[in-house]
Design goal:
mainly beta; glutathione-dependent formaldehyde- activating enzyme (gfa); eight-stranded mixed beta sheet
Length: 142
């Protein structure tokens, strides 16, 4: 894909203090049901898309970073609190954007539900996407 035909997606926080642009297609997109993502977002699950960090540019303001657990940084707007991005040592060559913060979130189609072992019981999933209870690397730690 040439630079002239490369997909450009833009997004930002609720109040508009932080804006970003990301170029190219995501490497993947998933709904995460883990307890940490639920608590960080206040939602039953969070939808992420993974990009190479070099493809993301903060175009207005800068998010505040919070180290939510060892090796994990969550970025959010310091004014309105909107969660914007996730980075983790497990994925050193990726930044995970909250799909819901895109101006056009419909541009990214999620591919899978992950950490469904933590899924809230009243949430009924009928979208036909694969469900991964826990990634194999996590299950080995148990």
């Amino acid at each position: 894909m040439s630079a002239s035909t490369m997909k450009i997606l833009e997004g930002g926080c609720l109040c508009g203090a932080v804006r970003y642009r990301v170029e190219g297609a995501p490497r993947w997109s998933a709904h995460c049901h883990c307890k940490d993502c639920r608590r960080a977002s206040g939602a039953p699950f969070v939808t992420y898309a993974g990009f190479l960090p070099a493809r993301l540019q903060w175009t207005k303001g800068r998010p505040k970073d919070f180290n939510s657990s060892p090796g994990v940084t969550r970025s959010f707007c310091a004014t309105c609190g909107s969660p914007l991005a996730y980075e983790g040592d497990r994925w050193p060559d990726e930044i995970h954007i909250h799909v819901g913060t895109l101006d056009h979130p419909e541009a990214i189609q999620p591919q899978v539900h992950v950490y469904t072992v933590h899924q809230i019981p009243w949430l009924q999933l009928a979208d036909g996407l694969p469900k991964v209870p826990m990634p194999p690397s996590e299950a080995k730690k148990k």
